[in-house]
Amino acid sequence: MLSSGIMDEDAGSMNRVFKSGAGAVVTKSIGIKPREGYLNPTAIELEHGIINAMGLPNPGINNFSDEIKTLKTLKIPVVGSIFGSNSREFVQLAEKMQEYGADAIELNMSCPHAKGYGLEIGSDPKLVKEITSNVKKSVKIPVFVKISPNLTNIVEIAKAAESAKADAVVAINTVKAMKIDLETKTPVLSNKIGGYSGKAIKPIGVRCVYEISKNIKTPVIGVGGITTGEDAIEYFMAGASAVQIGSAVYYRGIDSFKKICREIEKWMQKHNYKDLSELIGVAQI
Ligand code: DHB
C-alpha cells in the first residue's frame, strides 16, 4: 500500500501510484475543516531520511468526497486516513469516508507534532480504546489504527486498539526529530519539530512490529523506511502481514512499488518460498 502523506492529496496522484503497482492507497489524513498547514520549510532531506512537519494540510472531509468517489469509479482500493481531536470527530469523519466509498479507515493516532491531534491522543490507551471502539460501532468497513514509535510502551497502545476490535494496527508513523542549521543557529522546519521517515527509521519500525505482533493477534501492517524488497521481507519476518511504502517514492521513483514487489518475488524464489504467509513472523523467537 501507499502510506499516508505521500502523493495522496487527490485522486489523480493516487491513480498514478496505483497504476505504478501499489495494491491499495492510503489518503493524506483528512480532518473536519480545511487546514492550510504550517509555513515552509515543511520538509527537508537529511543524510539518512526525510524530516517533515506539514501541519495536517487538507481540504476538510466535505471537500474530499470527489477524490474518494473518483478512486472508486477507477476500482482502486482506498483507505481513508482521518484525524480528529475527539471521538465525535473521528466518528463523523469515518462515517463520511464510508459514505464516499472508502474500503477501510485508518485512524491517525500518531502525528508527532500537531497540537490536540495525533500522538496527543495516541499516547493515551483509554482514548485509543474509546475512539477505536466508537468508530468500529459506526462503520462496517475495516478500521486500522496507526500508532506511533514515540511511546514508552507501544504494546500497551496496540493492545488498546485490539481490545476495541481494530481490524489492523499500522506501525509506525514518523519518529519525532529536529534539524538545526548551524549558520542561522535555528531549527530548519518552521514548526521546529517534525517527524523523521526513510531508511534511518527502518530498524525502529521493525522492532515495533516485532513487539506488537508478538503480543496481539490482530494483524499488523508494517511501515517505516521500506525501500527495497528485502526491507519488506524484514518487516514480514518481524510479523507484519502487509506493508506500506512512502519515502521510497522519493528515493526510487513512483515505480518503487513494482520494483519492491519484483525484489520480494526474486528473494522468495531464491530461498524456495511459495507463499508470503510462510514468512510472516518467522523471526519471532
Ligand atoms: C502530518 C505528519 C504526520 O506524521 C502525520 O501522521 C500526519 C500529518 C503532517 O505534518 O501533516
Task: Compile the SSE list and pairings.
Blueprint: H1 11-19, E1 25-26, E2 43-45, E3 50-52, H2 65-73, E4 78-82, H3 87-100, E5 104-108, H4 119-122, H5 125-138, E6 143-147, H6 154-163, E7 168-171, E8 175-177, E9 180-181, E10 186-187, E11 194-197, H7 202-215, E12 220-223, H8 229-238, E13 242-244, H9 248-252, H10 256-270
Parallel strand pairs: 1-4, 4-5, 5-6, 6-7, 7-12, 12-13
Antiparallel strand pairs: 2-3, 3-11, 8-11, 9-10
Helix pairs in contact: 1-2, 3-5, 5-6, 6-7, 7-8, 8-10
The protein binds 3,4-dihydroxybenzoic acid (DHB).
Could you characterize the architecture of this molecule?
The chain is an alpha/beta fold. It has one domain: TIM Barrel, CATH 3.20.20. 36% of the residues lie in helices and 16% in strands. It is built from ten helices and 13 strands. The chain has helices at 11-19, 65-73, 87-100, 119-122, 125-138, 154-163, 202-215, 229-238, 248-252, 256-270, and strands at 25-26, 43-45, 50-52, 78-82, 104-108, 143-147, 168-171, 175-177, 180-181, 186-187, 194-197, 220-223, 242-244. Strands 1-4-5-6-7-12-13 form a seven-stranded parallel sheet. It has a four-stranded antiparallel sheet with strand order 2-3-11-8, with no helix packed on it. The radius of gyration is 18 Å and the shape is globular. The model has no long low-confidence stretch (mean pLDDT 97). 3,4-dihydroxybenzoic acid (DHB) binds at residues 5, 29, 53-56, 108, 110-112, 118, 173-174, 195.
